[in-house]
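Help: read this over?
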Amino acid sequence: MSPTSSSSRWKKIVTRLIVLLVFLVGMSWGGKILWQRISPGLFGNKREEKIPTARVKTSNIAEEIVAVGRLRAVFSTELRAEISGRITKISVTDGQHVKREEEILRLDQQDVLTQLQESDRNIEASKLKMQKARRDFERQQDLQNRGLVATRDYEEARTALALAENDSAVFNARAANLRDKLAKTIIRAPHDGTLLLRDLTEGQLVTSAAAQNGGTLLGEVADLSALMVRTNINEIDVARLKVSDEARVRVDSLKNMMMNGEIKRIATFASESLGDRTRVFPVDVVLDETDPRLRPGMSATVMFTLAQVQDVNAVPLSAVFSNADSVRYVFLRKGEGFEVRGIDIGIADTRRVHIISGLEVGDEVALMRPTEFEGEIPLSKPAAPAKARTPKRGSP
């Protein structure tokens, strides 16, 4: 190999190494610039972090308890059969207005009628036996008075009469029981009202109310001129309610309709919620007025106003923080940063809280903890204001 070709080959190798080195340096520099641009978005950058804020504004705040329930008639009666049987006739339709004692449906009566017919024959036979026993006794009694019959024969005649009278009473009692059973095969309206009939068909077998599960629910007769909402209130909030308190009711299917109501009953004994197994108290709210579109069973939202204030300083709930001593504070904007400011708060709704003291209208507060504040905030409870507005229950 000549010296010239060897020198040319080394020049090419050196050139390639230089190009590769420049490429690697460029990739490293570009990667650094790219990382600096995207890393704040991925992992955050304390220096460039944007803290959302809100300003103190005047607002109207109402502290409320919101619960859900279902519409039902104030006065209604469930329909259940007192005996088991098969439906042979349905005389009315769902939604029909019925009068007291009007027939609603009828169960199969054939078996009861057969037993009643047999019982009537037994009654007739017992009457004949009783008449014969009475004649025999009267004859024995006459002979006894004249001393022509033994005492034993007289006592047997008297016993036979007593047994015949007893048998007659038993058969009459059985017949009365069967007649009562026959009457129970006809389900009648217990009072005037609208019939809310379940999905029943003729030929369907129903069980009596004495059954273990309470029997088959046939429907109910309800007076729809007065409606109420029954809702469950947890044990913490129920102590803040009382009978005669006002409430607002919104039926979910009629979202533009808001109705007023009044608490008529608060249960004295708690029940257990099936969902989260908390202790709840049934509360009945009777509506002040009804609407033809309302139906029992509709879902409704009930709102109880505990307190309300108007034209007061307020901030979003997320702007208020609390330390271990239950001292409330906010992070107040000061220049480019924030400072901790202790506050005194009043009532709150689902979005805002009433600021009694510590802030003025227009002050800007953080909606999340700024990164420069870490750990517990050492604050003592602020002194109570000289004149603090005390919200009255149900009025401003």
